[in-house]
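Entry 12.
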Amino acid sequence: QVQLVESGGGLVRAGGSLRLSCAISGRGFSHHVMGWFRQAPGKEREFVARINYSGSITAYEESVKGRFTISRDNSKHTLYLQMNSLIPEDTAVYYCGGDFRPNGSGGYWGQGTQVTVSS
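Predicted 3D structure (tokens):
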């Protein structure tokens, strides 16, 4: 069984940066696609970024392209999301997950970390 714990969220001003980390425990995750979703108040959870098992293939939601970078270090059991040029619309709870379907269902998930971007 895989367990995930996110960290690195917080309050930042627009234009600032944050780096989210997702500590992974358990076995099997290194073979799985992993990624980040987010959920803003009153909205459905949405895809942010995903990365394949080796880290060679990534995909991003259109609004974060060029600003966010997803990466993983399987040897350190950690998934990352570097977020630059943050805007208020990025405010949400960010969840890391693994082995999920393209719509974000299934798989395994962390408890989330709050990111708040002030204008």
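Annotation: Residues 31 and 60 are 20 Å apart (CA to CA). The radius of gyration is 13 Å.
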